[in-house]
Every structure is written in structure tokens, then in C-alpha cells.
Amino acid sequence: MPDLPFLRAEIERMRYQLQRQRKEIRALQKAGIPTKAAEELLERMQAKINSLCEERDRRRTEGLPRYPGTDKPIKGPAERRYR
Q: What is the DSSP string of 18-46?
């Protein structure tokens, strides 16, 4: 399974790629070329990014310390965690 820094880098890379693809689709639409297949590809890419974000969030909360006696993660800066 990929680690957290890899997931973050992959999400960033895919978001950048998605932006480039959208820009190209706009240029094709402006030229009057059909873009249905390209838009479907964008939808699949966005779904993949969303699943990676869910995985990233799940892994991030797994690594956080928990409040004593509960399953609730302690979020925020480290200096606020142990007062």
C-alpha cells in the first residue's frame, strides 16, 4: 500500500494533469471539435482523485493520537495535543 507522502504527491500530480486536460478540452470546444469522450475521461480522473483523497484522509486519521477512553482523533498542532 502506498504511504501518505506518495498519496499526497499522486493527488497533486493528478490534479495538475486534470487542469491541463480541461484546458485542452476548452480549446477543442472552441474549435468546434466534439469532446464527449474527453469529458468522460475527466469524470473518471476526478473519481480516481476523489478515491485517493478518501484514502489519504483515512490514513491521516489512522496515524493521529486518540483522546483517552474514546476513538476520537486529536487534531491540530502538536503543541495543543497534550495540554
A: HHHHHHHHHHHHHTT---HHHHHHHHHHH
- Residue that has been written with the C-alpha cell 498519496 in this structure: 7
DSSP 49-69: HHHHHHHHHHHHHHTS-B-TT
Quick one: DSSP state of residue 20? H
pLDDT tens digits along 6-20: 999 999 999 999 999
Helix axes 36-62, 4-30, angle to 10 degrees: 160
52, 7 Cβ separation under 8 angstroms: yes
Are 59 and 7 within 8 A, CB to CB? Answer: yes
Nearest to 11 by CA among 50, 38, 58, 43: 50
Q: Mind listing the pLDDT tens digit for each residue in 41-83?
A: 999 999 999 999 999 988 888 877 778 888 887 777 766 555 5
